[in-house]
Amino acid sequence: MNDELAEHIRKAAVLTTRHRCTWECERLGADKLCLYATGAAPERGIQRLSGLASRHGYRMVRNDKPWELGGPGCSGVTWGWVPQEGIEEGLQPYTINLQRGMDPAEEFFVGCHEMTHVLLGHPPRDETEAMFNTFKRRGSKETPDEETPCHLAAIAMAKSKGVRIKRGALCYLSRRAHDCMRAVTPQDQRNALHAATQMAAVL
Known about the structure:
This protein is mainly alpha-helical. It has one domain. The protein is built from 10 helices and 5 strands. It is globular and about 45 Å long.
């Protein structure tokens, strides 16, 4: 299984470098409308990811926090420690928030992405308050160091479970790589495999 996951991650990394978004990506909405995966999700996939989250001290819930904080197109938000201001506004600490209403394949993909944040310790506590304040302004605190391995792991998990990857998943990675002038690194791939292996063990 590790070899299969590693190969999915390697191929996604290569495609990230090669892909350049075109007008067709824009027409389809690319990575703006949560169009990452389609097809049948693995049976009890979210429940099993939720169980893994619980073992790490997190809850996985469906709500509207992603859209409230990140706007339409934000499909998942994971918080560890939450500043007092965030608690007063209804954020729960150590919670994986999945936007309600996603279809099962999309939800599984996003669940794997957000679970990877937990498994890799994102974000560090000293960055959480700044992240919260940025989300309040409808901005983004995403960094390639965190987002790249999470999306690679989600792609690998989806493909290993027969979920079809859509163009938006590749656009998500490619835009961040090219905009930040930062290639997918071997460490990104190792981090993605580390998380994917743990998720595969419960799925």
